[in-house]
Design a protein that fits this description.
37% helix; single chain; binds nicotinamide-adenine-dinucleotide; Rossmann fold; globular; 327 residues; two-stranded parallel sheet; seven-stranded parallel sheet
């Protein structure tokens, strides 16, 4: 796999998804360079001896220098937090939209053979059909979704204008070890962290009507490698489990895996994200993708990983200016 590529740059490689990707690339015997400003990621997520360039995608000179002589770039760096995007849309847009433009421009100058952009299911906005295919309209409703979509549009223009071989993955709700508890908003690890500390799980919205597509990090990495290896320039792929889970079902899984009764605290005055969300993964399956981690096993492994008193999530879920959030 990835036989054509030797030297690989991973922006955001010290973060949650990026660091697992780095591990996978190293195990394929690749030379990997990480570019990260460590605003959300940590050196501790990286194996010792790896080359880490501490730099910012908002700085064109830094990313251009880092991209030199690489033949594959995974652009993972971003503000990945919706609430941060609501509170500071400029930071979000500069990082995700302008930052992506800078990485594309650096890739062009380096003459890379492939550019993989890690986008997000947030580009779809509120789903209009179930499951969501890649041709679903893109109508984001918070700044984070629009900045990730702006990144996709830049990718498209670099392909059509300069023939930069760009491919795009749209992860759904990713969970697993190494999420930053201060920033991560995906329910699996948030819920588990409260629960393991014997605190009520704070559920934003309606626990029966709100559904999500939770995908384990190992499956997302499997998908990203397949996209890099086999996708054609311009192709876009959902990266999900294809399974729809209500928040009630998630709390039930957590209760049964941990063997501890679950307490819940429902925040019913925030309803913006009470909608169904599930991916159609038939397109990426045609590349050979097969999600392997069930939610029960993923929760089991994460429970072992987090231990008895994991750090409690502190970031609130906010969709509108002035909203109180759930904390
Ligand atoms: N976690 C999810 O559920 C999820 C879902 C869909 C899409 N994504 C996308 O996946 C990517 C990775 O997300 P993650 O969950 O690993 O988040 P993360 O915050 O753990 O990783 C992002 C990394 O980018 C780095 N970074 C941020 N701003 C930077 C900048 N200006 N310059 C250089 N580095 C910078 C951070 O330090 C961090 O290491 C993001 O592009 C995000 O939009 C994540």
């Amino acid at each position: 796999m990835l036989d054509e590529y030797e030297k690989i740059l991973v922006t955001g490689g010290a973060g949650f998804i990026g660091s697992h990707l780095v591990d996978a690339l190293l195990s394929l015997g690749k030379e990997v360079v990480v570019f990260d400003n460590l605003s959300a990621g940590a050196e501790g997520n990286l194996p010792s001896g790896i080359r880490l360039i501490k730099g910012d995608v908002r700085n064109p000179g830094q990313i251009t220098e880092a991209a030199k002589d690489t033949d594959l770039i995974f652009h993972v760096a971003a503000n990945a937090n919706g609430t941060v995007s609501v509170n500071d849309p400029r930071l979000d847009f500069e990082t995700n939209a302008w930052g992506t433009f800078n990485v594309l421009d650096a890739a062009l100058q380096a003459g890379v053979k492939k550019f993989v952009y890690v986008s997000s299911a947030s580009v779809y906005g509120r789903p209009q059909c179930f499951p969501i295919g890649e041709d679903h309209p893109t109508k984001p409703f918070i700044p984070y979704g629009s900045s990730k979509l702006a990144g996709e549009i830049c990718c498209d223009s670099f392909l059509h204008t300069y023939e930069l071989p760009v491919v795009i993955g749209r992860p759904f709700c990713v969970y697993g070890p190494r999420e930053n508890p201060k920033l991560a908003l995906v329910e699996v690890s948030r819920y588990l962290r409260w629960h393991l500390n014997q605190k009520p799980i704070r559920i934003v919205g309606d626990m029966d009507r709100k559904t999500r597509d939770f995908v384990h990090i190992s499956d997302v990495i499997q998908g990203l490698l397949l996209i890099a290896d086999r996708a054609h320039p311009g192709e876009v792929f959902n990266l999900g489990s294809g399974e729809e889970v209500t928040m009630r079902e998630l709390t039930d899984v957590i209760g049964s895996i941990t063997g501890q009764p679950v307490m819940v605290d429902v925040i019913s005055d925030i309803m913006e994200d009470t909608y169904r969300l599930v991916s159609d993964i038939s397109k990426i399956k045609s590349l050979g993708y097969a999600p392997r981690m069930s939610l029960a096993n993923g929760v089991r492994y994460l429970t072992e990983e987090l231990g008895e008193h994991p750090e409690i999530p502190t970031g609130a879920t906010i969709f509108k200016k002035g909203q109180r959030g759930e904390m």
